[in-house]
């Protein structure tokens, strides 16, 4: 049973989703199943089958969230410091070809959202950045091809 890193914010978000699914979604789905049952013949009752499908998906996600939370190694990024890139670092890069600046925070897999500037620790970008320092040049092999970046700043927020 491997532990995996996660920021405190990511952990809180998963806990909130779990709580919502258990305390709001689960009772709503149970009510929908009960209502659909009251309509009679279950073999041709689309509402009943849709509610049972929703229940299955919700319970599967609850189990997944409980597993992730039980194996999470929460890392308080605000207590980290230094100039070497590691988990939790917020890194400012400049594309060496287009001079475009990008800022990414390296986070756990479940909290990654590239559009919001959070990349997974297992992503090609994060793997290329780990262990590097300000001023280093990195080559990132992405599915869209290779990119070269220079590291402008490393912060822990």
Automatic annotation (TrEMBL):
InterPro entries: GreA/GreB_C_sf, TF_GreA/GreB_CS, Tscrpt_elong_fac_GreA, Tscrpt_elong_fac_GreA/B, Tscrpt_elong_fac_GreA/B_C, Tscrpt_elong_fac_GreA/B_fam, Tscrpt_elong_fac_GreA/B_N, Tscrpt_elong_fac_GreA/B_N_sf. GO terms for molecular function: translation elongation factor activity. Pfam families: GreA_GreB, GreA_GreB_N. Keywords: DNA-binding, Elongation factor, Protein biosynthesis, Transcription, Transcription regulation. Residues 13-22 have a biased composition (Basic and acidic residues). HAMAP family: GreA_GreB (MF_00105). Gene3D superfamilies: Transcription elongation factor, GreA/GreB, C-terminal domain (3.10.50.30), Transcription elongation factor, GreA/GreB, N-terminal domain (1.10.287.180). Residues 83-155 form the Transcription elongation factor GreA/GreB C-terminal domain. This is Transcription elongation factor GreA. It comes from the Bacteria. Belongs to the GreA/GreB family. PANTHER family: TRANSCRIPTION ELONGATION FACTOR GREA. Necessary for efficient RNA polymerase transcription elongation past template-encoded arresting sites. The arresting sites in DNA have the property of trapping a certain fraction of elongating RNA polymerases that pass through, resulting in locked ternary complexes. Cleavage of the nascent transcript by cleavage factors such as GreA or GreB allows the resumption of elongation from the new 3'terminus. GreA releases sequences of 2 to 3 nucleotides. Residues 1-22 are annotated as: Disordered. Residues 5-74 form the Transcription elongation factor GreA/GreB N-terminal domain. The keyword Cell wall biogenesis/degradation does not apply. The keyword DNA-binding applies.
